[in-house]
């Protein structure tokens, strides 16, 4: 099966350098603002991290635009792609969370938020939100949970996932270091919080080296039963 | 209701009874379309959805506004507004679009269509004396990248019905959910389970309004009707596609790897297979397809449906299988060589 792809986002990335003949330009409602998001689930914690660069084409609009948004005390969402759709989508999710809280007198759980987001995204199947979402949080039993989405709402629960412009570079590294895939004769040690945070920092430093849309700073949100802790780490600014 | 309007969230109960008493007319830039189940009738002025049970509210952009220049984009003008928050006041000022000429806006290139890929997967299903076997690989690809190496392409709909999915993941997951819900409602209303043929017809009719759009669902529904003794033994396997196809058959394979799977299956499927033979045949077919098709790979899932319901075999990693076979091949080669020497 196919996930909906990144075809929408070719505007905003660098265009052809050489003149290739007359081209008809149409107004495109989408633009690609870059950014990478990463989430890791542990035994009793979850980490959601994103870079803070907002770019468009050759320009950087902002160096301080983090892509992690806190939804509840136990859930954080990371959205990358088209910034306009990210903002609207987070507003809609916040509103729906409030409505749920008012009518059901309890906060939405991570799994419920994930299912709701899937239907919100699919409601725009024919004019999608150009956003790659990853939700990180704690499930009802207090274990870490990561849910990854494609732009039209297909989702599943994972242990770790990278999304955004550098996702193709980061995902194999995570498969190897967290999933212990493609390694012979290695002990499968469970991930503790300090090692996970260090791994996330190393992984983003690598991404900033090789992806032009990733850099400036790294914002890490660590979700535990005691709440959400935020950390900011500088990255390459060039 | 400000929050709800912002989200475009309409509680369907409230919506149909008090906000849309008679008819819901589709404006030229109509946005939210209520998808009624069966009782819609096209009145002379447009569309009236009298059934309040709408499984899904879908936002359909009309082509016209997207080709507007950016200067007019977003200005609140009834003719050019991209979406309206309160669809109640549209009435006489807005021209409406009579269904179906403007809808769906499939042929317009205004919203770029997704990457035109064939169904990148291998799924298959066949029936035999011991029930129905459904098998699929687990690779979800996205424009050349493997988005998920461990996705589930065979989704149980209820205890006696399983559907293999191929096409766009989001479409398949959501329409399976909708189908499961509608089947459950049918069971509650009529006191019996809907047959596989009925489920296939229902799915085909639900997908029909989206024919011509980018929606891409190609599913085979495998089920068992009735109790221990089947009412109709041939009626267990249906292929439903979002382009409108609905076929009953004994053997189907769907996806980019299906030619390879068909060749293996055509050579081996007989009515009289035992359960173990059937399962190993299905695994072999998927294995061969994953070997040759780039868009199929990783693991294989096998489901077996009988009168007691469906059972699932543990997911098997095919890489070890490949290594094992290579070792086996080398052994055989060495044996041959040693014979000749």
Automatic annotation (TrEMBL), chain A:
Instruction: Say yes or no: keyword Cytoplasm present.
Output: yes
* Keywords of the record: Cytoplasm, Nucleus, Proteasome
User: Where does the record say this protein resides?
Assistant: Cytoplasm; Nucleus
Q: InterPro entries given for it?
A: Ntn_hydrolases_N, Proteasome_bsu_CS, Proteasome_sua/b, Proteasome_suB-type
Q: Name one GO cellular component term.
A: proteasome core complex
The question of whether Transmembrane helix is a record keyword is answered with no
Please indicate which superkingdom the organism of origin belongs to: Eukaryota
Alphabetical list of Pfam families matching this protein: Proteasome
Provide the GO biological process annotations: proteolysis involved in protein catabolic process
Q: What is its main location?
A: cytoplasm
Concerning its family, UniProt says:
Belongs to the peptidase T1B family.
What this protein is reported to do is described as: Component of the proteasome, a multicatalytic proteinase complex which is characterized by its ability to cleave peptides with Arg, Phe, Tyr, Leu, and Glu adjacent to the leaving group at neutral or slightly basic pH. The proteasome has an ATP-dependent proteolytic activity.
Subunit structure, interactors included? Component of the proteasome complex.
Please state what the protein is called.
Answer: Proteasome subunit beta
Q: Which organism is it from?
A: Oncorhynchus tshawytscha (Chinook salmon)
Automatic annotation (TrEMBL), chain B:
Xref: PROSITE patterns: PROTEASOME_BETA_1, PROTEASOME_BETA_2
What is the protein named? proteasome endopeptidase complex
InterPro entries the record matches: Ntn_hydrolases_N, Pept_T1A_subB, Proteasome_bsu_CS, Proteasome_sua/b, Proteasome_suB-type
Q: According to its UniProt record, which reaction does this protein catalyse?
A: Cleavage of peptide bonds with very broad specificity
Q: What EC identifiers does the entry list? A: 3.4.25.1
Superkingdom of origin organism:
Eukaryota
Q: Which residues form the active site?
A: 121
The organism encoding this protein is Oncorhynchus tshawytscha
Gene Ontology molecular function: threonine-type endopeptidase activity
Any one biological process term the GO annotation gives: proteolysis involved in protein catabolic process
Localization recorded for this chain is: Nucleus
């Amino acid at each position: 099966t196919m996930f909906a792809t990144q075809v929408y986002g070719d505007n905003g990335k660098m265009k052809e350098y050489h003149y290739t003949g007359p081209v008809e330009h149409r107004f495109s409602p989408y633009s690609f603002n870059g950014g990478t998001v990463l989430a890791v689930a542990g035994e009793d914690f979850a980490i959601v991290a994103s870079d803070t660069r907002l770019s468009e084409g050759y320009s950087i609009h902002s160096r301080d635009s983090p892509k992690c948004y806190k939804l509840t005390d136990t859930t954080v969402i990371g959205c990358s792609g088209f910034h306009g759709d990210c903002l609207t989508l987070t507003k809609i999710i916040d509103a729906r969370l409030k409505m749920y809280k008012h009518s059901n007198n309890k906060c939405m759980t991570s799994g419920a938020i994930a299912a709701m987001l899937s239907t919100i995204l699919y409601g725009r199947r024919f004019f999608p939100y150009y956003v790659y979402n990853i939700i990180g949080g704690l499930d009802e039993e207090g274990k870490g949970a990561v849910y990854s989405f494609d732009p039209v709402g297909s989702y599943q629960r994972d242990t770790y996932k990278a999304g955004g412009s550098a996702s193709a570079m980061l995902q194999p590294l995570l498969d190897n270091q967290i999933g212990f895939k493609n390694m012979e004769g290695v002990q499968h040690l469970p991930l503790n919080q300090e090692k996970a945070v260090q791994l996330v920092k190393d992984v983003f430093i690598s991404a900033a080296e090789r992806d032009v849309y990733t850099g400036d700073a790294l914002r890490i949100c660590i979700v535990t039963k005691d709440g959400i802790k935020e950390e900011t780490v500088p990255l390459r600014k060039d | 209701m400000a929050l709800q309007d912002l989200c475009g969230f309409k509680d369907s109960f409230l919506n149909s009874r008090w906000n849309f008493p008679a008819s819901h007319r589709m404006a030229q830039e109509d946005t939210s379309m209520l998808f009624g189940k069966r009782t819609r009738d096209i009145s002379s002025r447009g569309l009236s959805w009298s059934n309040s049970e709408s499984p899904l509210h879908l936002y359909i952009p009309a082509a016209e506004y997207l080709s507007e220049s950016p200067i007019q984009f977003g200005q609140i003008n009834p003719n050019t507004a991209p979406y309206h928050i309160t669809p109640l006041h549209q009435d006489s000022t807005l021209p409406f679009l009579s269904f179906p000429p403007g809808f769906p806006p499939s042929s317009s290139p205004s919203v770029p269509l997704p990457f035109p890929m064939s169904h990148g997967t291998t799924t298959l299903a066949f029936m035999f004396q011991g029930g129905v076997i459904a098998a699929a690989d687990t690779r979800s690809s996205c424009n050349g990248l493997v988005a998920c190496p461990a996705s589930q392409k065979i989704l149980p709909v209820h205890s006696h019905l399983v559907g293999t999915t191929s096409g766009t993941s989001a479409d398949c997951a959501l329409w399976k959910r909708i189908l499961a819900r509608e089947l459950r409602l049918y069971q509650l209303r009529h006191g019996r389970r809907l047959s596989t043929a009925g489920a296939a017809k229902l799915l085909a009719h639900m997908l029909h309004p989206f024919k011509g759009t980018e929606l891409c669902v190609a599913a085979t529904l495998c089920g068992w009707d009735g109790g221990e003794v089947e009412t109709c033994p041939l009626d267990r396997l249906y292929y439903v596609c979002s382009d409108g196809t609905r076929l009953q058959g004994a053997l189907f394979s769907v996806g980019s790897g299906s030619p390879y799977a068909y060749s293996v299956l055509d050579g081996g499927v007989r009515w009289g297979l035992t359960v173990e033979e059937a399962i190993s045949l299905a695994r072999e077919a998927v294995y061969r397809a994953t070997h040759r098709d780039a868009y199929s790979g990783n693991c294989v899932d096998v489901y077996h449906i009988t009168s007691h319901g469906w059972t699932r075999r543990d997911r098997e990693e095919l890489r070890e299988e490949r290594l094992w076979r290579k070792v086996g091949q080398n052994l055989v080669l060495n044996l041959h060589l040693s014979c000749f020497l």
